[in-house]
């Protein structure tokens, strides 16, 4: 993918942001400092704007306890608590298929700790797979900015081994072997749907 | 659908709740007082428990401004505001297909006011349709507890007419003609996936 120069088409801020950033830094460390969530939101915006896929992060579930309704201004939530989500964070539609995934980053270098996932997220993936959904995890090793798409069925395999006394993490080596490595680009920043194409074949 | 008697299978509270309610009231007014959202959540729980579909309501999006982290207790959100959702409220997977819908109830008797929808929800449906998602609206006329599934393409048709100066509502008559009427049942309370089966044919 090449960087496009102004050609009369309307620029939007996000695209300019990409270009500014990409000219300031080397490719390898391009996204250091940006959270995986922010990177995926940018990527999903790109997919949405270009009619490639409609994928959104779900809002964080909140238990609202008390709300103020001041006159002439917006309702203000005065007391609320975080609730545990009953699903994964991302879902949507791509080429007619239901897409469902969660994204996790780890500071570890040699393995991905399974404790990054909760039981209910794994159960949600199991149920989506039964409905023929396309389910996976996006795993980022922060230290070297490497991203993998790992099929939910592989993740579930290691989860179940752990539950029956197996190791509490998946080695980087295993993830390299089973997963699809996704290289950072300009647009989309994380072209993870290319890995999904492979999953769908 | 017949009511099942205890047969050694574990009862769950939701099912008992249904039975208790249904014996106390006539079928026509069975769900008066329950919001459409609560009814759909119950229906989706049924679909989920029975491996029929995985469909969830998305959490309400909140802009969090201030959070307290007291020692030894849960983080407490002290200030937050409601944000406008950028998608419809419900989505999930059924028979391999991406399902996406919004649910609206009206107190009107002869028509459904289009102002129940926001521009961005209609745009979201347009984009999901482009990706071959199954998109629709669930519309409930509260006065006579009647529920319809209306295809997104029909809804968008009337929305676009409105934008170009047409009427600001869809007549009940039109909804009766174009939509799929869904009859309340015991389990699931609102068997809307039967209408979806027809949409998918």
Descriptive account of the structure:
Chains A, B: Pfam families: RecU. Two copies of one chain form a homodimer. By secondary structure, chain A is α+β, with helices and mostly antiparallel strands. The first copy, chain A, has one domain: Trna Endonuclease, Chain: A, domain 1. In chain A, 33% of the residues lie in helices and 28% in strands. Chain A has six helices and ten strands; from the N terminus they run ααββββββαββαβαβα. Chain A has helices spanning 13-24, 36-49, 119-130, 152-163, 172-178, 192-200; strands at 54-57, 62-68, 76-82, 90-94, 97-106, 111-113, 134-141, 146-151, 169-171, 180-182. In chain A, the strands form three sheets. Chain A has a six-stranded mixed beta sheet with strand order 1-4-5-7-8-10, sandwiched between helices. Chain A has a two-stranded antiparallel sheet with strand order 2-3. A two-stranded antiparallel ribbon of chain A has the order 6-9. In chain A, a hairpin with a 4-residue loop joins β7 and β8 (146-151). In chain A, α3 packs across α4. The longest helix of chain A is centred in the first third of the chain and has 14 residues, at 36-49. The two termini of chain A are 24 Å apart. The model of chain A is unreliable at 1-29 (pLDDT under 50). The A-B interface holds A 48, 51, 53-54, 56, 58-62, 74-83, 85-87, 91-100, 124, 127-128, 130-133 and B 48, 51, 53-54, 56, 58-62, 74-83, 85-87, 91-100, 124, 127-128, 130-133.
